[in-house]
Specification:
Blueprint: E1 8-15, E2 21-28, H1 31-40, E3 44-50, H2 64-79, H3 84-93, H4 98-112, H5 117-122, H6 130-142, H7 145-199, H8 208-244, H9 246-257, H10 262-283, H11 288-298, H12 302-316, H13 321-328, H14 333-345, H15 348-404
Helix pairs in contact: 2-3, 2-7, 3-4, 6-7, 7-8, 7-10, 7-15, 8-15, 10-11, 10-15, 11-12, 12-13, 13-14, 14-15
């Protein structure tokens, strides 16, 4: 079977039917194919060349925030009556991220070729997950694509905001610990030895704390390569095991839920994502059993994902969601009761939306509270670690003053 030719991004210049000079970027298999395509559009190509690759760093990574912004732009344009292909062209050419621009124009080319939007998005699973594709497909089949795109955009904006807050809460203390370790290592390897040379001619015993820091410095000087190499190897091994082992991910997510403070934050985030995703899928008319699989992946926690898949199996046998939620033991009674009311009143999507709003606000408040609480704790931690090393080096100076006296 012949291998499909890869599309390339070209920069072109030409003149339109009125003789006006125009230019732009397009993807095509070759420059000859692009020239033929431009002529069909009424443009006489003058210059066509491959777009040069960036000298440093390659393409900028496509983030979840990029996808959220793209979803909102597409939804806004289509609700304003802009044709889909034209909307893709406007959004794609106006994007600052070259990688995102290439992705959008590639989807546009597929749609122009007769592929449905859902199928065109499904070709890029790294950026458009099953939930996104299923919602778009439901919108295309029901004829309410504009409405569904608006729901998708709202969903992506809320989930990205949630992820950002969780990362902020987690990364702040982690980054401080890393900085403290690096600063301490620099002091132990480069600064403490200078003091050690000074202390050799003191003629008095050094304080126990100073001796401890000197021994620690000697250890770092001798084994710094093993310490940093071991840390790097441990991080690499953790990433690889986390990526390849489902059992390890499940165990880690289970341990994270048991952490003080942070465990509660992760739990509330998972419930908010569950409610928001199920609300969006249910409002789009996606069948409940089919929606549950996408909901499981959106919770962001393997323990909750496993529970949602169990709920899916129960729903397939006719069990109500609220009964299944109660048996998992992972959802607070308030959430279960809200879902029960929604099922009985036929307004499940509305109740799920209220649950999502409540827990998203809870996450916001927890992150703000954690930030306020952690700032003094982190300052104290840095003071103890870095300040302790400095004090250990100056204790003998004070002792020398008493010896001289």
């Amino acid at each position: 079977m012949a291998k499909a030719q890869e599309k390339v991004v070209f920069i072109w210049e030409g003149t339109d039917r009125k003789g006006t000079r125009v230019k732009g970027e397009s993807t095509a298999i070759s420059d000859a194919v692009l020239k033929a395509d431009l002529r069909r559009q009424g443009i006489n190509p003058i210059k066509v060349r491959k777009k040069p690759k960036p000298l440093f760093g390659g393409k900028k990574k496509i983030t979840g925030q990029d996808i959220a912004i793209f979803s909102r732009q597409l939804a806004t344009m289509m609700s304003a009556g802009v044709p889909m292909v034209q909307a893709f062209d406007i959004v794609g050419r106006g994007h600052e991220n070259p990688a995102m621009q290439e992705l959008i124009l590639s989807i546009k080319a597929d749609v122009e070729g007769g592929t449905s939007l859902a199928d065109a998005l499904a070709k890029h699973p790294l950026y458009f997950d099953e939930l996104f594709v299923n919602l778009v497909r439901a919108g295309e089949q029901s004829g309410a694509l504009e409405n569904l795109l608006d729901k998708i955009a709202t969903y992506k904006e809320k989930t990205e905001a949630m992820k950002s807050k969780i990362k902020k809460a987690m990364m702040y203390p982690a980054s401080v610990v890393v900085v403290a370790f690096i600063v301490s290592a620099i002091l132990l390897i480069f600064v403490v030895p200078q003091f050690q040379e000074l202390f050799r001619g003191f003629g008095a015993d050094l304080p126990a704390f100073t001796m401890f820091v000197i021994h620690l410095s000697n250890f770092f000087q001798k084994w710094w390569w093993a310490i940093f190499g071991g840390i790097g190897l441990a991080i690499f091994a953790f990433v690889q095991v986390h990526r390849r082992s489902e059992a390890f991910r499940h165990w880690l997510d289970k341990m994270l839920l048991k952490m003080p403070i942070f465990g509660e934050l992760i739990r509330k985030s998972a419930i908010a994502r569950f409610a928001r995703t199920l609300q969006t899928m249910f409002a789009a008319g996606v069948p409940l059993v089919e929606a549950m699989e996408s909901v499981a992946g959106a919770t962001g926690n393997a323990v909750y994902a496993e529970a949602v898949l169990k709920m899916r199996d129960d729903a397939a046998t006719g069990t109500q969601i609220q009964q299944s939620m109660r048996t998992t033991g992972l959802f607070p009674n308030m959430v279960v009761q809200m879902v029960a009311i929604g099922e009985e009143s036929g307004s499940l999507d509305t109740m799920l939306g209220k649950v999502a709003d409540f827990y998203e606000e809870e996450v916001d408040n927890m992150v703000d509270g954690l930030s306020s609480l952690m700032e003094p704790l982190i300052m104290a931690f840095l003071g103890v670690v870095v300040g302790g090393l400095v004090v250990a080096m100056y204790l003998p100076v004070f002792k020398m003053g008493s010896v001289i006296g």
